[in-house]
Design brief:
Chain lengths: ~140, ~170
């Protein structure tokens, strides 16, 4: 499915996310959509101009974490415990990288997340990710 | 061989390693460098504020740590391909000096365990090639900061070796 996303906003609170030019887009609770525009500085294969896998992993990690953070039942902060990324194909040079992640299960101490990275449609993924996130100290906003 | 010739050989090998990593924009973007002891590499992620993921702790971005592990694994695999060419010397070594390197092995998958949060300072990483197959290589890689015995992250992954396509 091809989705038309609105502009989103720059992720200025996180220095590295800002450095990569990540934009967060409107998503349902427990979901996150983050994009990164193509930049020459992110190239991993100079011959083809394909961006490095590390960029894809970074955005997936960030979007999975954000999906957990927006879960309505979360009473704390999250920290990545583990992340597995499977790379299906190279990202297309010149195209914006999109990631969509969801927190599909939340327990008292762990948030389970999964997501996909693509450039044109999520049916043709660049990579998929699965991660577990530890729930850490309580967020004051949600404290009882 | 004379001591001077041995030194020249070491310098040539270090220059080749330097140009291998300098040829990849994203490695320069993160500012990752490698030091070499024979055929074993140690990666260094030079700290800068732009690598921070959580400004409150503050901690390195988890994605930066996993990218650093992936770069270290791929560079070690490429170096293992380059090494016999260096040993052969002659035209094979000349090609490397001209910057003609094997293609970077493609990551099939990578699983990262985050063991401790990355502090705002340099990090180091070393990769161990568990199996160097003709088509696929399996690699373990660990990153640490102040204390080698207290790694901040560990990863294992499978990589498709160049020449086999995908």
């Amino acid at each position: 499915m091809t989705r038309i996303h609105e502009d989103g906003y720059e992720m200025k609170a996180v220095p590295h996310s800002q450095e990569l030019g990540m934009r967060s887009h409107k998503a349902d609770p427990a979901h996150a959509i983050i994009s990164v525009a193509y930049q020459d500085s992110l190239i991993g294969d100079p011959e083809s101009g394909v961006i490095h896998g590390g960029v894809v992993t970074t955005v997936l990690d960030n979007a999975c974490g954000l999906a957990a953070m927006t879960h309505p039942d979360l009473k704390g902060m999250v920290a990545t415990l583990d992340l597995r990324v499977d790379y299906m194909r190279a990202a297309k040079p010149g195209m914006t990288l999109w990631t969509e992640c969801e927190c599909y299960r939340l327990t008292r101490s762990v948030a389970f997340c999964r997501g996909v990275a693509y450039d044109e449609t999520s049916d043709d993924p660049i990579a998929t990710a699965t991660g577990a996130f530890m729930i850490t100290a309580a967020k004051t906003k949600f404290a009882h | 061989m004379s001591a001077a010739k041995e030194q020249t050989r070491k310098e040539r090998r270090d220059a080749i390693l330097g140009s291998l990593t300098a040829s990849i924009p994203y490695i320069r973007f993160l500012d990752v460098e490698f030091t070499r002891m024979g055929d074993e590499l140690t990666g260094r992620l030079n700290f800068s504020d732009k690598l921070i993921g959580n400004p409150m702790i503050p901690a390195l971005h988890g994605g930066v740590v996993s990218a650093f592990l992936e770069i270290t694994a791929q560079t070690q695999l490429t170096w293992d391909l380059v090494w016999p060419q260096l040993e052969a010397g002659g035209e094979e070594e000349e090609a490397l000096l001209r910057g003609e390197f094997p293609r970077t092995p493609k990551t099939v998958n990578l699983t990262i365990d985050y063991l401790r949060s990355g502090r705002p300072r340099d990090a180091y990483a070393r990769a161990i090639v568990q199996k160097a197959g003709r088509r696929v290589a399996n690699v373990r890689v660990e990153a640490w900061q102040d204390n080698r015995g207290r790694p901040i992250a560990a990863a294992h992954g499978n990589f498709l070796m160049p020449g086999e396509g995908k």
